[in-house]
Amino acid sequence: MNHNQQSSEGRHDDDSALSDFLASLMDYTPTIPDELVEHYLAKSGFQCPDVRLIRLVAVATQKFIAEVANDALQHCKARQTSIIKDKRDKQQKDKRSILTMEDLSKALREYGVNVKHQEYFADSPTAGLDPALRDE
Fold first, then answer.
1. pLDDT category, 37, cuts 50, 70, 90?
2. Rounded to an integer, what distance in angstroms lies between the CA atom of residue 113 and that of residue 65?
3. Is residue 113 part of a domain?
4. What's the number of domains the chain is made of?
5. What are phi and psi of 121, to 5 degrees?
6. What residues contact 133, with CB distance under 8 A and at least 6 apart?
7. Domain that includes residue 56, residue range
8. 133 lies in a domain?
9. Percent of the chain at pLDDT above 90?
10. What biological processes does GO assign it (predicted)?
11. Residue 81 belongs to some domain of the structure
């Protein structure tokens, strides 16, 4: 077999896999509703009647959001670990992770999204807790 035949067969396999994937999107219901994706695509000037493409954008968006949320969680855990090291003599009673705008901003910055938030946001891990439970 020469190089052109191998290239043609590889392209055919890729086209077949893409067709199968696009066909599977018709049976898939993404977390992000089609109407919401269509709204934001239309708002940006993109119109497409193909539901498969709408769902492809929804799946890509869902993946992006999941990756950002996971990265923000990792920043949160790293921050809370450093707080525990600073307070070695005190025991941590509450093992919950408290995600802050700072954690989310750091995660988004890794993807090229810069977030600026107002000063009045409650970025303290103890914000909203009963004053008797605060460790400040």
1. very high
2. 12
3. yes
4. 1
5. -65, 145
6. 94, 126
7. 15-86+99-118
8. no
9. 37
10. transcription initiation at RNA polymerase II promoter
11. yes
